[in-house]
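(Fold this chain)
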Amino acid sequence: MRAGERKEILSIMASDQITPKEAETSIHTIPPAPLYNSGVPIADSYPHGRNPGLRAKLMPGYLLCILTAFCFIAFAAPVAPADENDTARKDSAPTQTPCPELNWKSSKEFVASIQACRKNEEAKYLQERYSRGVVMMNNKDLIRDREIRAYLLTPREKFCRPWNLSRAYDHAFLDIHYGVTISGPHLVGKMTTALEVQPGDKVLEIGTGSGYHSAMISYLTDKVYTVEIITPLEKVTDGIYEQLSGSGYPEYANIKRKSDDGYYGWEEFAPFDKIIVTCGIDHIPPPLLKQLKVGGVMVIPVGPPGAQVILKVSKNQDEKGNIVVSREDIYHGRKKESFVPFTNKEGGTHFK
């Protein structure tokens, strides 16, 4: 990279039916390398009036040294000095961007760009993923380019079961046994958009299920934690993550997971910037609210069985230092959803 500014422009590209969004521009500046000398000015090495003949004879050598120094500077300048924060930066961000040339201007270009970096994805499912994504963008279930990209990179078909694989991109809940389902792509997209995950955010998911939702979030941050109460299901999903992380999806290896009662969160890694709950309950679990950072957001389905409102819960602090919790229906009263119940270890539910 040359010294100075380098601009990387990530353009949001949609189909002809979608109005292109404003491109995000990221500017990275690398300072030029510092220039060092011996601390002794060249002119003072041979003071005027002392052996001028010798100085004249040595002048070509001086010129050669100066020319060599300029050449060295020209080639060395692009190399930035060591930064003591480099290690921290590497620890806080993914080491590689999956499919950096991802293009979704058209179905054909999308399929080609994915298959260029992932040889194991079938054109059939890629076309279905793209078509569903166009509808999700039209519905504003996906708005920002980061969430659009995360959706398009996540192979939903690999988290479905053989008996419903043909419906992988249907707008529907799909059965994965153990009494639970994989939520439809529109709902997953809407909840993820409401969560507003930023790079480096610590995100806790309650209800791993198929593993699809955490996989999508892993393209937004490399700090994802997920809890599943059904141990046999957790083992199946763990196997899916391990298989995929070794076959072209290394980002899934960053997802920390365990089998436990998610009502109590994951205190070992608290607090969290974002929390997402994928099972229905009639109240906001106090342990989860406690483990949410001030300034954080939780997205959770709240309401009686079969009729939950999906709330965006924000935790903030007022000027007096008091904690203020606000709630917002992400659908603004237009719809309710029916989630599987938030179960406990005794086989019952956490409904009051």
